[in-house]
Amino acid sequence: MGKFSKKEKSWMMYDWADSAYSIIITTAIFPIYYKAVAENAGVADVDSTAYLGYTISIATLILALLGPILGTIADYKGMKKKFFRFFFTMGTLATLSLLFVPSDSWILLLIIYTFTSIGSRGAVVFYDAFIVDVTTKERMDDVSARGYALGYIGSSIPFVLSIAVIMLAQLEIIPISSTTASRIAFLITAVWWITFAIPMIKNVHQLHYVEREPRIIASSFKRLWQTFRDIKQYRTIFLFLIAYFFYIDGVGTIISMSTAYGTDLGLGATDLIIALLAVQVVAAPFAILFGYLAKKFGAKRMLYTGILIYIVICIYAIFLETITDFWVLAMLVATAQGGIQALSRSYFAQIVPKERANEFFGFYNIFGKFAAILGPFLVGVTAQLTGSTSYGVFSLIILFVIGFIFLIFVPDNRAAE
């Protein structure tokens, strides 16, 4: 970390902070907790998985609709940090609210989860856009990849603490129920998230901006409309966004529904959680590796590599039956997950105008989030129609193939410079 500046380190630390939410709430403990609550309420496994998918779709739809509008407003001087703080506060307070949801209220649980998701993902939109304010174009791949690596390493600590509390409760070593143990995990998440966001809030500031105008909201809509009118001028940006729309859909769906999928296959909660922890540990060096290889081969080739790995994952998912199979799948995910996300972020930051980074990251958000509506919905519908979640996961291969094809028409990042 010595070669990075204070601003770069502070920015990267938010990946360390927010990733606790990603692993504990989005991926691991909350889905298992929700599935248990839904089962106790008499909801069938396939239906509860589908309802989780629908909830994810609703949350992402809300944020996708707001993203470009809020992003355009945030490009004005002094606005980016305000929007970041608003969504950060929403996400952390909603996560704390999970502690107080009655153990038989699965619908209320999903409603609160919606607010945690909007808060977390909304803050990340503006966090991502801050990369243009903390580093240079030449360092973006490395800084972005290191951020993701820190996220994987940092999130492992609260994840291990949460697992320890849950397992000690299950073994009756500590006198609390599994429900209380899960709630303690939610508390750990919120405290970790808030604590390690402090450097980002304190040290990162908006350097590139558009000067404020009278009637900011009306002016923002005019700028947004002008961007649509000038779409040919930004051909590279929008070609990339189309490719990103498809391949990131599959990535996000696999992340958000992996534990629910494993649970439907009859895998134990302990086995699932340990496998997911291993993913965090293995993904960190691979994220750094992707950043290093991007310097040598270009980000575009490394994005191709990540997409191809995910295509293999979708095919392998059909044959998933045992915990060994799940481990193989988890390790495949670990090799590509951080790299494809980090390089997507840094490649996009390199090709957008810095003073309009929020506006374009708003589009980055809307393409990513609208895609995230399709994936979970597709898995949910397919699971209900076929009675098997495996076919829903396999259907995601279509999205990766389409994303790969569109990426062919996007210039290499070195050529884009």
Brief characterization of the structure:
The chain has helices at residues 6-27, 29-40, 45-74, 80-97, 106-129, 131-134, 140-170, 178-196, 198-203, 216-229, 235-264, 269-297, 299-317, 323-351, 357-386, 389-395, 397-408, 413-416. With 417 residues, the protein is an all-alpha fold.
Overview of this protein structure:
With 417 residues, this protein is mostly helical. The protein has one domain: Growth Hormone, Chain: A (Up-down Bundle), CATH 1.20.1250.20. Helices cover 82% and strands 0% of the residues. It is built from 18 helices and no strands. The protein has helices at residues 6-27, 29-40, 45-74, 80-97, 106-129, 131-134, 140-170, 178-196, 198-203, 216-229, 235-264, 269-297, 299-317, 323-351, 357-386, 389-395, 397-408, 413-416. The longest helix has 31 residues, at 140-170. It starts with 5 loop residues before the first helix and ends with a helix. The chain crosses the membrane at residues 12-34, 54-76, 83-101, 107-127, 148-169, 181-201, 237-260, 272-294, 301-320, 326-348, 360-379, 391-410. It comes from Oceanobacillus chungangensis. Residues 236-417 form the Major facilitator superfamily (MFS) profile domain. GO terms for molecular function: transmembrane transporter activity.
